[in-house]
Design a protein that fits this description.
This protein is α+β, with helices and mostly antiparallel strands. It is built from 11 helices and 8 strands. Helix 2 packs antiparallel against helix 3 and helix 3 packs antiparallel against helix 4.
Length: about 375
Amino acid sequence: MMQGILTNLEDYWYLVGDVWSTGVLGHSIGDLLVAVTIFGIFYVLRGLFTRFVLSIADRWVERTETKVDDYIRDAIRNPLRFLFFALGFFFATEFLAFEDTARDFAESLNRTLIIIAIFWALYNCVVPVSQGMKKLERLLTPEILEWMIAGAKTAIVLIAGATILQTWGIQVAPIIAGLGLFGVAVALGAQDLFKNLIGGMSILIERRFGIGDWIKVEGIVEGTVEKIGFRSTHVRRFDRAPVFVPNQQLSDHAVTNFSAMTYRRISWLIGVEYRTTHDQLRQICGDIEAYLTSTEDFAQPPLAPLFVRIDSFGPSSIDIMVYCFTHTTVWGEWLAVKEALAYRIKQIVEGSGTGFAFPSRSIYVETLPPSADEIVAARK
């Protein structure tokens, strides 16, 4: 009995030793524990390593005046930590020395981690590099640079995906060919999307407007541009309601960009009564023109036209045209200047001894109907 128990224990211990020695994929559990320890050491030391490398980078960037290298240092911080993580995984798999299929799988996985780290750093560096291209904003506009940044990020992601697929033995060319046929089918049903994309490009190239501009498209929208996207432009109306306008409509219709105004116009017709005399008309026109030319709020000829003239004889009034431009183009300030001009014109007209005309109608009676007494007398 006891001999049988001892024999069974020996067999069980043999099984334990066999499991310990064979482990997983032909490696002992001890080797796996060592590999996990190696990976854990690298994982723990990645913070110290990146801090050491970044401290060297900090000393280097402090010697330069440009901010681009500061942005690049911040951009590679996380990819560098990830690369140290990949390095620990590489040493762990190298210690295990896989064979055949397992070796190919481990190698592909190591390559994938390296690819992710490299393209992650490139993706993060797109924005810092674009900061060094600020001088090109005058040529390309900030909106075009934003599109270029988005295009560069998309290209990096696509190239990274294709590289990873190639690493795992998946051919990219057939996929691209299949996507090409699929793209033709999609394009037939997405013509509006491409029209809007081309419309957005024409808006940016022609510089019709930019972010923050106040625009008006008759019958479509009026407000402030907040974003120019690939398909539509986000315009915020003055009642704070957002409007997403397809780029095609903005490229095919006339767009008034009020933010691009040099000066802002005031065009009025001032109607005075027909009883106004010749001298009073001259006085009114002269005083209004004197106010416009003596006030700094208004642009003066030849920079901008300025007219105060008798324009027409209307049905109920003599119309005086007041045509001038203000220096400010800000709506609120322009309203204040226009209000001050209205006060002054009212003061001038009333001070001249006449008044403003209003729509009226005169009735002329050639003959009056007979009175009651005349009718009675006629009957007698």
